[in-house]
Amino acid sequence: MKALLIIDMLNDFIKPEGSLYCGKMAEEIVPEISKLKKEFREKGYPIIYLCDAHDPNDEEFLAFPPHCLKDTKGAQIIDELAPNSNDLVIYKTRFSGFYKTNLFDVLKSLEIKELYLTGVCTSICIMDTAADAFYRGFKIKIPVKAVADFDENFHQFALKRMERIYKAELIP
Ligand SMILES: [Zn+2]
Prior knowledge:
This protein has 172 residues and is α/β, with parallel strands linked by helices. The chain has a single domain (2-171), classed as 3-Layer(aba) Sandwich (Rossmann fold), CATH 3.40.50.850. The protein has helices spanning 11-14, 24-28, 30-43, 103-109, 122-135, 152-165; strands spanning 2-7, 47-52, 88-92, 114-120, 139-143, 147-148, 169-171. Helix 5 packs parallel to helix 6. The structure holds zinc ion (ZN). Zinc ion (ZN) is lined by residues 52, 54, 60, 67-68.
């Protein structure tokens, strides 16, 4: 069984007026993720959103400007990729979707073996989630047109590193 993970496709990251806008590249992956969502839904595979949701005094704001504050518009999934009623939404406070969340238990209970990682940023939340997935024995697939980063060099490096180190399969 496989699952689609849609990571941090939230207003603060994807919309130009967001507080931590990831740039044009991040906007450009929206149609590709939409397409994947449709394919997964048609085949009955789970779709899981991993969403940053911070308290105002979160330590992450020592390194990044405040973003995705709990229960604000900035922390909401962009309208274009709004979840359907049977999609799962998991909130996180750090880069990895596995850190202090129930993601692993959810994946286990659904008998998921293969994870398709999509969203932002390739070198941060995608790569850290890939690392934790790899440690837990999941096969990782990355549709490269469905991930983005505000830094093109980090994007390219992260893809190569995930392929080499976590045995991620890059899907062109
Ligand atoms: Zn964050």
